Amino acid sequence: MQYRVTAAESGYMTERMAECRPRPHPETAAIPQRLYLNVFGLSTLQALYSHANQSCFPEHIHTMLNHKLTGRILFINRSSCTDICSIMEAFGPVMLHLLLAEEEEERERKQQRHIGRAPVQRPKDKALPVSAHKQPVHGMRRTPKPRVFRERTGLEVFTEEEIIQRYRLNRSAINELYELIKGDIDPLTQRSHAIPGMVKLLNCLHFFASGSFQTRTSSIGGVSQSAFSRFMGPVIDSIKKHLKAYIYFPKDKAGWQRVKRGFYRIAGMPHVMGVLDCMHIALSPPHEREELYRNSKGFHSVNVQVICDCKGKILSIYSAFPGSSQDSVILKQTSVYEAFENGKLTGGWLIGGPGYTCQPWLLTAVANPTTTAEDSFNEAHARTHSVIERTFSSLKSQFKCLDKPGGVLQYNPTRVADIIVVCCILHNIGIKHNVLENFACEADDDELEALLSGEPELGDNSLAVHSRIIKDYFSGQSSWSQPDTG
Predict the structure, then answer these.
(1) pTM of the model as a whole
(2) What cofactors does the UniProt entry give for this protein (predicted)?
């Protein structure tokens, strides 16, 4: 390999030769035992030798240099290359300025070896001083961590009991849900170890069931925390899209009759279409308008309105109200209130808790009972209302992410509302597949069918409706017109 000196290099060396004469120099002791020359340094060495001796390199030195040149760096050992080192010692002050430090070149070679990139390119019109090994090398990247692909968990490794304990749904329920949403969560490619849609769904189900932090949930499910954080939102959104397929009021008269029969079997309360109440789900408060989310119990939450049937199945849910909202105020802002007020929902009433005022279609307990009939009504009201209390208890025990003792949800209010809705959907799926508890059993009793088949006239006076129910069903007298069952 031949090295020719350019005009710029020749000018540079001429200036240096005016200052340096070929003589031994005390600084030669600083030359390391192993020398590293870049291409420019080698060209300069060749030019200096030619200028001082009026001749080119000896043939044996030239052959040895070509043999030892590797890439763009020349490795020279003083013990084996005495001729070259004597030349360097003669031009010590200049050559010390042209040498590359051993430590820096080691770093460069390691960088090239580990990350497969070319060494850092330096300007060719200026050599790097020896002191550069004490300075940071610009342009170098830190060696990336190797990718570790964890073993991803699927349903096939668990028994049916383990699946229910881990995900709160059985195998058939999970497969049904996956078939419903797989078009939204399955990866578009199998490259780069793309996470399958089933793995995404199982990780989210485990998060809802356990209420653990993302780091623990993801490590158990075989994905990284960052990957879990990325796909959790799309999975939640894809499940929420099917809200109306699982949370709805009965669509026909036969469906309403089943609900009414179930409630009547609980405590003898007639024509009950559902039980209404609110629950608080704790969350980390947002920075803006934090006071809106502080409830009367002193912690931050969202106030969730729920209507359920006799089996604890959720018929309606509103989860977007801050914790400071009153139950009765929330009700008046929902479509349920509008439907009952406008007569779209008729034929019975809801059972409400103490946070509501009595309406012709909403029964509350008598505040100060004075008769035996009123006491009996309050007792039946409490037993019927307990269905929704058990529903709330079931939701929070099955899905620990909703339970305050397990820690508050560390998400913004919108995402918290979505998580609550998804947990309610999963609750109904569990009831459909007989995984979760059913609170009441139906009875196809002919007497109940005759008793509850008629639709009472509610009227506009809530107190009058209240009094008639107490009189007709809890005092032994009856004035409601029943259809002829003859």
Answers:
(1) 0.66
(2) a divalent metal cation
